[in-house]
Amino acid sequence: MTRLSQHFLFDPSILTRIIDVxxxxxxxTVVEIGPGPGALTRMLLERAGRVVAIELDEKFxxxxxxxxxxxxxxxxxxxxxxxxxxxxxxxxxxxxIPYHITTPIIFRLLRESALRSMTLTIQKEVALRMTASPxxxxxxxLTLSILYRAEPKLAFTIPAGAFRPVPKVDSACIxxxxxxRPMVQVKDEGLLFALIRGAFAHRRKTVANGIxxxxxxxxxxxxxxxIDPKRRPETLTLADFARLADEIFKAFPGQ
Length: 255
Fold this sequence. Notes:
This protein has 255 residues and is an alpha/beta fold.
């Protein structure tokens, strides 16, 4: 494993499938995060109109600078978590994301209004959380955060043996199509996600118990939203949380 916890794909057939899933075409600006040796980068340059490759590791950055010469490539030596994506115009992301920044970079990118899609190779476990349905197990804060802004689809799984160095877990290619507007409309987005985080911080308890620090009368708010206070957070949909957030905002606007 590299010092930045990256595992690289070299199989052209798998890389082709990833790019096919992304739907990238000659009109697109594509951001690749952590290009490493550049196998995916080279293939993206054949499909996309522009490729912005962000590499933190100086060794890989210098190697790519020397080996790839293309007017369509903008190679950036820097941190993808700090990159000014708003300067790109509309863009798509296609990347084999370093494991240690998977969740932070996804949340960072979801804040970008010009983002149109993400096609990511990530740990299979994380992909299952992102695409989970209500119920015990994988469903939680990450699931609902993704659904709010995107339509996620687990495209295919990738065995650990396809990577070098070989990771200890299997991976998956996931595609996120960014919605034109959030899946639900709420009066206070911050309150919505505070409720979701609060509820799932105590996922084995009832929703009423989980949100009592955020709402002076949780049972009343839940009943007004048409939700049984005895339900557990893993049974609530994003629409349920949105109704609850609006009821609390209406009853306690200063909360």
